[in-house]
Amino acid sequence: MPTVNVNRDLLFEKLGQSYSDEEFDELCFQFGIELDDVTTDSNDPKGAVTYKIDIPANRYDLLCLEGLSRALLVFTKKIQAPVYRAVKPGSLIKTVVKASTKNVRPYVVTAVLRDVTLSQSAYDSLIDLQEKLHHNICRKRSLVAIGVHDLDTLSPPFVYSADPPQEINFLPLNQKKSFRGDELMIHYQSDNHIKHYLHLIKDEPLFPVIRDSKGVVLSLPPIINGNHSRVSMGTKNLYFECTATDLTKATIVLDILITMLSEHCNTKFEAELTEVIYEDQDSPCYFPALKYRKEIVKPELVNSVIGINLTPEQMALSLDRMCLKSRVEQSTEASLEVEVPPTRHDVIHAADIIEDVAIAFGYDNIPKTLPATNTIASQVPLNKLTDQLRNSIAQAGFTEALTFSLCSVEDECEKVRHSRDIKEPQLARVANPKTLEFQAARHSLLSGLLKTLQANKKMPLPLKLFEISDVVLLDSSVDTGSRNERRLCAVFYNKSPGFEIIHGLLDRIMLLLEVPCSEAGGYSIRSAEDPTYFEGRCAVVLYNSKVIGRLGVLHPEVLSNFELSMPCSAIEIAIEDFV
User: Fold this and answer.
1) Residue range 196-234, pLDDT digits in tens
2) Does the bond joining 208 to the residue before it have cis omega, within 30 degrees of 0?
3) Confidence class for position 282, pLDDT limits 50, 70, 90
4) Which of 105, 218, 320, 494 is 20 to 30 A distant from 34 in Cα terms?
5) Is the CATH number 3.30.70.20 carried by domain 85-287?
6) 171 contact partners, CB below 8 Å, separation of at least 6
7) CA atoms of 6 and 29, how far apart (whole Å)
8) In the CATH scheme, what is the code of domain 3-75?
9) How far apart are CA 471 and CA 513, in angstroms?
10) What is the DSSP string of 44-61?
11) Overall fold of domain 381-578
């Protein structure tokens, strides 16, 4: 769920009304969004207050101050939903798409906004909206990459082509010297912002590039724009280009950019139509689309799904508040004709319209009723066993911990003395981890408890911790390629190893589970070797002759890796076989 940061005073100025934090929180709840946090900038002498608002992932029209304030104004009936128009000028700005782009990023959509007035807040909103869209619908620029340019610095028509990287040379945004395309791939490897997008084209023989009629490079999508056409607060005419691997997504992104930012034009909510000409197609394409479409919904369906009793006229008024202009269509029976604007690409089904009726009606106003189906609920057996074991182990003097499900590869390999070559292929890796701490799904609960001991080693001894949670194991026999396994792990940390404490805990658990201590039809332990445990002080736990876990005294090197100075015993077993 994206989080939008908006200046409270600017937001209230656009809303034409001030709210207390509680009142605005209630307004957000009614509208179906959430005020997550209220922060104050300590470095600002005026103490600027920022609202952090959680937005549903499919509401691209709420990802900026303009869209959010406009939607709230319509919701509170202070304004009518605006009408967005794409006007055809006397001379269309053309973009020619070369056939060479087909194997790299084959699509481009364009638009122009004229007579724009950009304040500092509007400029910041433009930049922030691009970033939000890039990380959301654009899927980190893999589907769509956005470029916004100062049209007055360029000479149309434009050409979108794919060229050898050695033939592309330009001054990138915010740089002081020009680079060739291949040099840019090296230069931006150390840039924390740009380096995440290099893989999209760096291994391609041809790089996509947009130039004007004089050969000036506008952008090298999806990496960086050119500095020549950079946008400033003095820019009056904006040229938008979105290159893409998915034309539908590109059209949506362009619609959102135009509908949000056209608020700053002299003629509000009006864009200039542009022409895109594909060399291998007979007919040109025109953008922005800004299409309105009609949907028909039956009032009876709306009432039955939500559990309310509104008239068609009341439903139409409710949808008007959600920027969905509606009217009652009278034929043999009443129906709702709903006009879906270009800002609401999230509306793809009757269910989306029904949801908006429920929001406008108010979730708190929906009558509470018992479900129409009669079912008897029961706890999942594995969860029931887990809860019973948690209570019993806590009664034995152990404190429950809840550790992260993601961990570093180092925690699962080197720190517990396992070979990375052997252990790493067994881990479910995260494709794009944000930090080194969260590289993979945990394969064991032990390292998480040892990190908990490390953070609490100044607490009075002994430290007795346990956790019952899932680990992730790779499994090619299931559709997802991995499966969860519920495990129990406990550690005892004191001046002496306390192996008898851990062994006694195992016996107590088996007693509660009514599992006899027997090699046939029960549980037993058998000496084993494991690099995590001290030589000669490790055993495997068997249940019905199947190995379900290990217990023993941890190796001093493992303790040293987690900055622990006292001996420690541990047990980790799978508990699903006992259900």
Assistant:
1) 999 999 999 999 999 999 999 999 999 999 999 999 999
2) no
3) confident
4) 320
5) no
6) 177, 178, 179, 226, 227, 228
7) 17
8) 3.30.56.10
9) 22
10) STT--EEEEEE--TT-GG
11) BirA Bifunctional Protein; domain 2 (3.30.930)
